[in-house]
Specification:
It is built from two helices and no strands. The protein is mainly α. The protein has one domain.
Amino acid sequence: MLNPEDFELPLEKQLRMRVISQEVDECNDIDALRENLKTCAESLMRFQHLCARMAEQQLKGFMNEFLDTMDIEIDK
């Protein structure tokens, strides 16, 4: 499904990551770092949840297509 190169960040994202890393390294405001970490964690969890929901919907669609092809009806 995924290729090894799919896990590599494109140059534009690598540059953005480098800028973010530098900003974090230079930040001395603990409260700002805490708040940004919380925001980052929430964004990651939402993204993971959305990816799981999309995968679930895709699998349901594939199964429905397969069952239709086999002329099998199921109660929903």
